[in-house]
Amino acid sequence: xxxxxxxxxxxxxxxxxxxxxxxxxxxxxxxxxxxxxxxxxxxxxxxxxxxxxxxxxxxxxxxxxxxxxxxxxxxxxxxxxxxxxxxxxxxxxxxxxxxxxxxxxxxxxxxxxxxxxxxxxxxxxxxxxxxxxxxxxxxxxxxxxxxxxxxxxxxxxxxxxxxxxxxxxxxxxxxxxxxxxxxxxxxxxxxxxxxxxxxxxxxxxxxxxxxxxxxxxxxxxxxxxxxxxxxx
Length: 232
Hints:
By secondary structure, this protein is α/β, with parallel strands linked by helices. Helix content is about 30%, strand content about 20%. The chain has one domain: Spore Coat Polysaccharide Biosynthesis Protein SpsA, Chain A, CATH 3.90.550.10. It contains seven helices and ten strands. It is globular and about 50 Å long.
């Protein structure tokens, strides 16, 4: 089952020390074609009957995220059908094949203006729940001065979601169209900090049939396509 909302954002304890509750927005990327999974929307795969995108939204909401934008592209109609009732902003990328940066920038632009920080999340991470988003937020709050981006690192490998300051968001949006969070980090490596953790869920998303089989084998919980989710 999806995580029950429990924790919220807490006062900033580092990286500026405002001593107040952070206002956090999130961009959920769900515009991909799923070409390696038969051109189906991988975020609609279900774990215990719950679509992965709804699990991610429950995780973000449960961690107290204030404003959520879902970026759609391929399969937008099918995905929108499972978002009914969720208080999220939906944005369609008219050219999703332009790549993830284009979707990310659309999502960042659609967020409300009065934010302290932004989380960029994938829509297909089955093992991410509210406690894991809360842990990322807490790592961000405790970041040393001068750090603007925090990302999870598992066994030396980068994971998702990533979290960064409102200033980074503004700089990305003011930059060229081919600049997103990863490009900003490459240009400002001294402002980027890993949040070292052993939770493998930060590294796990579903891209291929092999990923589906490995998830079922490793967890004993198969991911299933919903009825009516057909190749397109």
